[in-house]
Amino acid sequence: MEIIEKALKEGRTTLSEFESKIVLASYQIPVTREIMVESKTDLISATHEIGYPVVLKGCSPDLSHKTEKGLVRVDIRNDTEARKAYDDIAAGVKSKSAAVLVQQMVEGKRELVVGLIRDPQFGPCVMFGLGGIFTEILKDVSFRLAPLERRDAHEMMSEIKAHKILDAVRGMEPVDRETLADILINVGKIGLDNDSVKEIDINPMIISGTRPIAADALVVLQSSA
Question: Are 58 and 163 within one domain?
Answer without folding.
Answer: no
